[in-house]
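Hi P.,

Sorry for the delay on this. The queue was packed all week, but I finally got your sequence through. Input first:
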Amino acid sequence: MKIDRALLSTLLIADGIVVVLSALTGEPTVLLNTQIAFFGSLSVMLGSMRGYRKMVDSRVAQEMVTVDIDSDTIDRIEDPHGLYDEDRHLSKNDDIRTVIKEEKARMKASKKPFKETLVDAKGALSLSRIAGYAFLIGGFFFLKETDTLRLGAYLPALGIPPLTVAAYMAGMRVKKNEH
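Then the structure:
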């Protein structure tokens, strides 16, 4: 995956600011905590972006692009199993066994094919994403075991890469809308 040079520059500037602020504290452990958290968070984020990109590219290449025009997105989020559909009212006279059989048949029909699930899992289980999480978790345990973990420095540094990328993307969207 190619990373936009401007995004990379923005992330390096953000890390530079973190390094300067950490150095101002005068504690080397603060710098260590912020750098491990920053690069751990960054590696997870870049790994996730890469995995998602590969998943989308794979779905497009296999022509598995799905668009559900009939169903509203909010309805799918709020009621994923269709429990509140207007056409599904039960009366006291309905046989429970029949209702269960109908529900099982409906759920079987709405399942994703195995091939589609496998393609989606490749993005979620990409090696780069797993490596990012391994670095993040390993860094945390390293700091904890060496008794150098400073949560006051570690936790805020975790949020800097996602916030930086979000600000960059928002800026890009504004620039795009201006043109």
